[in-house]
Fold each of these.
Amino acid sequence: MTGSQSEFVRQEAERAAEDAAWEAAEARHARTNGHDPSAQVPPIDLGEWDFGDDNEPIPPRGWLLGNLLCRGFLSAIFADGSVGKTALIIAMALSLATGQPLIGEHVFVRSRVLIVCFEDGADELRRRLTAAILHYGISKNQVREHLFVTAINRSDAKLASARGGEIIAGSLGEALERSIGRHQIDAVFLDPFVKAHSVPENDNAAIDFVTNLFVDVLVKHDCAGCAPHHTSKGPADPGNANTGRGASAMKDAARLVYTLTLMSESEANLFGVSVDDRASLVRLDSGKVHLVRRSPHARWFKLVGVSLGNGNALYPNGNEVQTIECWTAPDLFRGLSTILVNAILDEIDAGLPGGALYSDHPRATDRAAWRVVTKHADRTEPQARQIIKEWLKTGLLYHCPFRNEKQRKEQQGLRVNATKRPGTHAAP
């Protein structure tokens, strides 16, 4: 073979290698997006129908636990670290597995539940579950064949991974499907979501790919899914679905997003909660709820320690492990009779000597309406301020302009809407 022939053969081999590499890259990209390039792709049929002829009964949504979990949809709970996400989802899982409303949410269907834990080992998961069943007085017989758990520490057990700049579906999706089919699972918890994948957390396309894989499993098997997720750094913002860490695709994929936050200092002052007790109280707020009307009210929970009684010679005291229970915020209006409320309203409506009206302004002093509340009722300043806010919200109180002769200017003050007074009392 001459030198020119050898060079020709070498160039042809290089071109063939380049073509093969390009085709391999194309095939990898196609597989990443769920396509097999070697298969014939059938033409797409949209499957549209004439809604005018659609007279079939519409099935209701498959709610499992209150408005928190629904078949075929992904729920997410956004919270900072150590706020109680895992304690909450364990209580949710036990509610479903036993059919009992342990967290105050209605159980529509006693369900088979799968908890996939990525953060704790098997022994720690057993401690957490044991603490919860001890606290709620649940026996193992009550959850048998309804509560399935696993602790995963394999680095390859992911919904998806990033390799060489590509996003590749992992082995976890198929593993979930096998477990769901084996036990006829109704609800799946992935705790936490960030450990269920190894793609860039801030990449919207990558997170969208991951969440779609999980949602596809939920839809295929008619399951509800829940994925607790960490929040970004910054002050707590109850009910803000945008506080989730990383890409917004996580929030967009979930149809039900809730936030779990610690009780704030102002809330503790409002409810008369001590500094020590405040650290154990958390609130659950609806942040994004496409399937139902958003609730303006928080669900409150208390983190409690449970002794496992598992001491031995080396550790005689055993372990105390955290679980969660419902907590009811004090009713600001408890003990306020109709007569007492109307006495407060009478004084507010009458105003001060000289014709000035009371005010709800935060910096109001002599005209502060909250002082009238504390004069008549055993309430703290924060509680009295909140009562005034509630009355304004309901329209029992309203803002009214008046001439403040002492200051020689127009101001806003509070008057009472007589039609909304409690009882049959009439203002004098």
Amino acid sequence: MGQGPEAATLSALARYTLRAAAELTGDPARAVAHLNAVLRGQPGLPLCTVVCARLEERGGDWTACDVELRRGDVLAFYTDGVLDAVGAGDRFGEARLRAALAGLGGTVEERVAGLAERLEAFRAGERRDDLTVLMLEYGGS
């Protein structure tokens, strides 16, 4: 959250804490819980958006949520800046995001570009939050 040196410092703290916790525990949920504890121990209100996923070809006893992917399925990860993008009368929100994603096709690069175009067309005013989108296409085995 934020910009400048403080945001960069928080981002680095989050990235390296999460990476170390994930390597040590092998459990994404425990790694995120550890990161949350570390951030809560920091002064101020350190907020950040985190995606932590473990992708495996076979097996896995991931209890948080199982999602079966088929060849060609696309995963979309995004920051809260996407949902909170301010338009003329409201925010972009989850319903618009779902509709936009459903209407996109092509490569992941084309899909990201298409979503960026929709977001830019929606946004109004001077208030701008960071927008980060990561899309991954499952190629199968």
Amino acid sequence: MDSPSVRIGIQASLPRQTFNAWTQPLNIGWSRHARFGTEPCLACLYWPAGRRPHLYENIARALRQHPLRVLGYLVDATPVGAPLNPATIRSIPGLQLPSDAARWATTPMLKEVAGEFGWPDSALAHWQNQTIAALYRDGICGGALLRAAHEAVAQEMVVPLAHQSALAGIMLATQLLVASVPELHAFRPLPTEARFNVLAGLPQEMRLPRRRTEKYLCSNRDFLRFYSAKWSV
């Protein structure tokens, strides 16, 4: 999983237990969710408190492209190695086309993005027929193309230690193991969430108290009723 929306969707399917881990620019985190309706659920960690950027806005910022150009590639599923269909190049309420938008119909986005980030031609062949969503997910968030960049990228797209994701996976596996062995339950902290700053050294207070998000999944009567029926609890 690589997004808050997917994690919320998984919680909405009402699994009996959920174990979660993630990486951020300075830390790793992990959480367990075994008592739906009593403890914070997985969605409580990711439910937005306010407006968040749309996917096209995140992609536009990451690739340093105009949002309307990104929207055109998303809506039409045009490969990033091809120029946009002129019919998709148009303004929308609140967002106007720039004066040079005509070039979008003649110049593939991949070519311009590669020039912006300094990606070599040898790194682009795989992406010619990929969608912009795949370029963003695997090339940017997944790091497949960022390793070829010569400039700094937005902090939320990188982690400082090569083994950071592996360490998060180890903590995730540990949570699952402890949950599977009743004799170990007494040794785990009461808070369901913890974080570790990989650059801060030891000792650290890793336990992170968190409350349930009111009025949403684990406080909703319908979700609680279906969960009880599904798992006979």
Amino acid sequence: MTVQDPRPEGAPVIPRPDREALETLLASLRDRYGERLQTGEAIRAQHAHATTWRAPQPPDAVIAPRTTEEVADLVRAAAAARVPVIPYGAGTSVEGQVNAPAGGLCLDFREMDRVLAVNAEDLDCVVQPGVTRKALNEHLRDVGLFFPIDPGADASLGGMASTGASGTNAVRYGTMKEAVLALEVVMPDGEIVRTARRAKKTSAGYDLTHLIVGAEGTLGVITAITLRLHGIPEAIASAACSFASLDAAVTTAIETVQSGVPVARMELLDAACVAAVNAYSDLTLPAAPLLLLEFHGSEAGVAEQAETFRTLADDNGAMGFDWTTKPEDRTKLWQARHDAYWAAVRMHPGKQGYSTDVCVPVSRLAEAVSAAAAEAESRDLAAPILGHVGDGNFHVLLFADPADGAATEAVDAYAAWLADLAISMDGTCTGEHGIGQGKIGALARELGPALPYMAAVKRALDPLNIMNPGKVLHL
């Protein structure tokens, strides 16, 4: 397979560490950690491969720390040798966040996967970064609480915090930026810091918590996360509503938000996505633009929300509205939504998929989605659209044979165009996937004069540029 250089044209090449210093570091770590330090080609390749369009760039070694103190020891040793440190969770990122363009030491958090505390009365918990969202919710089920941030993949909570993830529940429950109360972080010099306490609000000092959330491992390594929790709703209902056109579906989504309906999830799938999901998940949804919804609350409240939405949908020519409170039916419907990427990939054999995302103000959503669909058609690109339309965030799935340079360039060109479209609407080039390697240029176009100040923060905290280099900023 031919792989593409993930660096935009003109981006600086990140120098690899001194070979002798690297070998000395690895020998020292092998003395301390034994066979836990792995340098085999297969394990290194595994830790450079995620759900990504970017070319894999493996680290020099992989190790799975078990404690915060071990993470601090590893970071101090890497800093002394000027060797990069790349945190790794579940490997579900899509913009090359786990790549190691200069090699280095990959910290795999699979063994730091404990729920450290559940404070049910305060509606919060403390977890290690390797805990996945599904494992946390399984742990919480018996105390009547749940963690609502659901990006689809069973991502690790450390990775979700690092990328500022959100997902299907964001329209009601927010994103990781709202869910994280405090962090324990190993800084680039190996110091262990706690960014906040468990209080629900604070005016104490600089907000280091939300500086680290979304920093993609470039400012420090997260070793513990304090998260907001929510009570499991009394009643939950899921619904599927088809429309004659994409515009009608998006308009209904906008009106639902503007009408104050407290919908928990509201997902858009265009006709191509629906066809793929039907084939992949053995469903019989109408092959038309679709809104999938979930309502949380009391039984009466859920029924009222559903009826309000039905009225809005009918006014926009809805073709049908089906809803259910049966857990097995809800699970099947939402699992099909979460499998939409893989369903679409199956429809394009021999090609690799790339899911790009943007977010715009809800008032511009219909315009943005229509323009995205029209532009893809004009470029003769297969580009199914889906997304968390309740908060203006949508995804376009793109496909190309990685060995076909012209095809991959066409996909990247469309993704850049889409990012610029969102920016022109006072939106953002990414609502939840993060910048990684793939959207560094788009971030510069979006925030321009703010970038030198971001770079100043990075240089102040990480003067050796060992924390996940080559991500977010060109340094």
